[in-house]
Design brief:
Elements: H1 7-19, H2 26-39, H3 45-64, H4 74-92, H5 97-109, H6 115-135, H7 191-203, H8 213-221, H9 227-238, H10 245-273, H11 278-283, H12 314-330, E1 338-342, E2 348-352, H13 355-368, H14 374-394
Helix pairs in contact: 2-3, 2-4, 2-9, 2-10, 3-4, 3-6, 3-10, 4-5, 4-6, 8-13, 9-10, 9-12, 10-12, 10-14, 12-13, 12-14, 13-14
Length: 400
């Protein structure tokens, strides 16, 4: 799911993201740092999402665990957040330890020594240890045993699909990976199949696709799939006037857990339904038995196809989960303009006036990129909304 990018593209994206910051606090600052470290690691998207869920949960629990007398003390808060990040990231990203330690040392050096700082550091360490212990056996390290569908003597692709074992992981919020599994995609003889097949065939083709320039830009923007692109959206909401670190820590924990569970649910559904990608279907349009799905022998998508089954859309699910949590957090209050940047668009920034606009753009981008059918983005959005609602019920509604 992750797209290799140059150091220049990553740097440009981080600079653009930092420019979006309005009222950053220690939680949002460390979220930006942690995402930068994760983006610089060799992790793919699902493991990276898991890392950020662990980090943000530890930060939330650290601030929630401060003694009442220190709950609003800046030295305690800043120290707790820094150490919670350090303790989780050094275990989860051992290749980044030098950078992690340098960032934490610089942060702690700026905090005056005293009982508040010491208490914050101890609380951050304890919270990280609890979360790491709880997730140590969540199944992320399980053996990959995917068996490609094969006929003796017939070639099959030799690049194995991504994280088929992810559906065996222990979720944060869901009762199990299958809780929100969508029903099957439409039958190949249906009108919906033909309609959505021809839509992605027309709009998602690499050369000659009937996209507008704006649709092409959005498709390339959303080629990037690491958690940073979604956490940037959350920061644009969290960095509004009047918010405090504890509230932001809870928001990021809810979003990060929802994203991780959404990926678990999506991977379960993908390998359960095992539906073919547009690049496969369109090059074999004469095999589905539908008169309206004409074959295009040399068809290729605008965006390279990820190595996992098609249905449902992971991007749509992630965006919908994030949107559900943000909507619940802000309720009837005016939502700030949302925005984020993307390394796959050379650090370009895109903005939206509502979560609905944001989620809609993500889903449309996956169709215009030639990666998904509309029924798959619809199913992904539905799964993400349900997971996001669980995060709201289990985390946000505990807030005072």
């Amino acid at each position: 799911m992750n797209t290799p990018l140059s150091r220049h593209a990553l740097l440009a994206s981080l600079v653009a993201t930092a420019a979006l910051q309005a009222n950053a606090d220690t939680v949002t600052d460390w979220n930006l740092r942690a995402n930068s470290l994760v983006a610089g690691s060799p992790l793919g998207t699902p493991p990276a999402i898991r890392v950020m869920a662990i980090v943000q949960t530890a930060v939330h629990q650290a601030l929630d665990g401060l003694p009442p007398r220190l709950a609003t003390a800046k030295p305690a808060i800043d120290a707790a957040v820094a150490v919670a990040n350090q303790a989780t990231l050094t275990q989860l990203l051992p290749d980044q330890r030098t950078k992690i330690d340098a960032a934490v040392q610089a942060a702690l050096a700026g905090i005056a020594d005293g009982p508040a700082k010491a208490a914050g550091m101890a609380t951050g360490e304890r919270a990280a240890a609890v979360v790491l212990a709880a997730r140590a056996g969540d199944g992320a390290g399980g053996a990959e045993s995917y068996r490609p569908h094969a006929t003796a003597g017939v070639y099959v692709p030799t690049a194995l699909p991504a994280v088929p074992q992810w559906a065996q992981r222990k979720p944060w919020l869901m009762a199990g990976a299958t809780q929100f599994r969508p029903g099957p995609p439409p039958s190949l003889g249906s009108e919906q199949w033909a309609r959505d097949y021809n839509e992605v065939k027309s709009l998602g083709e690499r050369s000659g696709g009937r996209r507008s320039a704006e649709q092409t830009e959005a498709a390339r923007f959303w080629t990037y799939s690491m958690p940073a692109i979604y956490h940037g959206v959350v920061r644009s909401a969290a960095e509004q006037p009047g918010r405090d670190p504890a509230r932001n820590a809870r928001l990021f924990a809810a979003v990060a857990q929802a994203m991780d569970d959404a990926i678990i649910g999506v991977i379960d559904a993908k390998y359960h339904h095992h539906f073919w990608r547009p690049v496969t279907a369109i090059r074999n349009g004469d095999l589905d038995g539908h008169a309206a799905t004409e074959r295009a022998a040399g068809w290729a998508p605008l965006v390279d196809t990820p190595m996992h089954p098609e249905y449902p859309s992971a991007h749509s699910s992630l965006a919908s989960a994030v949107g559900a949590v943000i909507d619940a957090e802000f309720g009837s209050r005016a939502l700030p303009v949302l925005g984020t940047s993307s390394p796959s668009a050379k650090g370009a920034v895109r903005q939206w006036k509502s979560t609905e606009d944001f989620v809609h753009e993500v889903s449309e981008a996956r169709i215009h990129g030639g990666l998904h059918y509309r029924f798959s983005t619809d199913a992904g959005e539905a799964l993400g909304r349900q997971v996001g609602q669980l995060a709201v019920e289990q985390l946000l509604r505990e807030a005072p």
